[in-house]
Amino acid sequence: MSAAYWRRAMNTGLAAAARPLPLPKSMASMAPAATAPLDPYAQSDAPRWLKFLWQHLSARHVFVLAFVLIYPFVATPFFTFQIAGQALALGLIALSLTFLGGYGGMISLAQMTVAGIAGYLVSVLGPSAQTISLGWPWWVVIPFALSISVVCATLIGWLSVRTEGIYTIMITLAIGVAFYYLVLQNYSVFNGFQGFQKVYPPTVAGIDWRDPRAFYFLALALSLAAYLLVKWVVRAPFGVALQGVRDNPRRMEALGFHVVAHRVAAYALAGLIAAVGGVLFTWYNGLISPNSVSTGWMINILVIAVLGGMRHPIGAFIGAIVFVLLQTFAIDVIDRERFNLVIGVVFLAIVLFSPDGLLGLWSKLRQRFGPEAIRRP
């Protein structure tokens, strides 16, 4: 036999193998229609954000959304403002660290510093109880504060992304400590150890955003926007490349990706989220001082992110809720001065039993005691 005959025979066999086998007549009616799309928005001209929501929205998300919308109408002002409002503000700052650590592989202790820069800029440029404040209108102060904070976060990232592991942590910690002593010792701009008092959100459209319910909905809207932004970014080409840089930077660089540029851009985006959280946290407290950007708060943000789970954006808010509840009610069990002991014990227990935080612990419990485990032989 000639070589041409064998070549034709092999090509015919491959073509036959590639053709799908016909279904029996009894099963033909059960086969799904090939032209029926599973996603009704897949072939439509709907916006991308609507397709994203349709693909990722579940009954669990609808229940949580309904709960957070109804919550301020059934809860007391104390739980609405002191618990939920504070947790949402801290959750935003922790979300910036979760994005950097979980998807970029970069642990930064300077996220509270970026939030403090935004808070100080709002206090210095906007109205406050101190005479050194410039008293600019809020619609000028807030964009300016957020822009400067993003620039500072970009510079911090540019300085720290060339290192990895403990060196990145030490560089960001050094930057945070330097900013703490700057605001502590400077009186002409930052008012020294006293800081700024009576830094309240503005009254817009006749709404006093200092009101517990109004502040809660403002913090909820910004938190939801930041959460959806992170969920969208990590699925976008930039987010996928960033996760590749996290896993194997040398391979990504060999493929033509600019590793340093991706990391610095991640710092800039995380800085924007932290800055929004910093403005909200300053408005919640009604003041800002060097204690607001101390090493204690830098560590607290790390604890919040680890408690919830570094690989889950929603974990930042869960960790913030647990942290605020412990901070508020731990004094009923032990002295206020020993609150850090309680946080340390909870943090140690979570790290030992669930390195992925509370969400990781919940996943383990579901796998072990959930309906799937019961049905398993």
Write a concise synopsis of the structure shown.
By secondary structure, this protein is an all-alpha fold. It has helices at 3-18, 25-28, 48-56, 59-74, 77-104, 111-125, 138-160, 166-185, 212-233, 237-247, 249-254, 259-285, 295-308, 315-329, 339-353, 357-369, 371-375, and strands spanning 196-197, 203-204, 207-208, 287-288. The protein has a domain at 76-293.
Quickly list its features.
377 residues, 4 strands, globular, two-stranded antiparallel sheet
Number of extended strands: 4
Order of helices and strands: HHHHHHHHEEEHHHHEHHHHH
User: Mind summarizing the main beta sheet?
Assistant: 2 strands, antiparallel
Parts with pLDDT < 50 across at least 5 consecutive residues: 1-38
Structural class: mainly alpha
Instruction: Quote the beta fraction.
Output: under 5%
Helix coverage percent? 55-70%
Radius of gyration: 26 Å
Round the mean pLDDT to the nearest integer and report it.
Answer: 83
- Total helical elements: 17
Principal-axes geometry comes out as globular
Q: What is the distance, rounded to the nearest whole angstrom, between the alpha carbons of the first and last residues? A: 56 Å
- What order do the strands of the largest sheet run in, or round the barrel if closed? 1-4
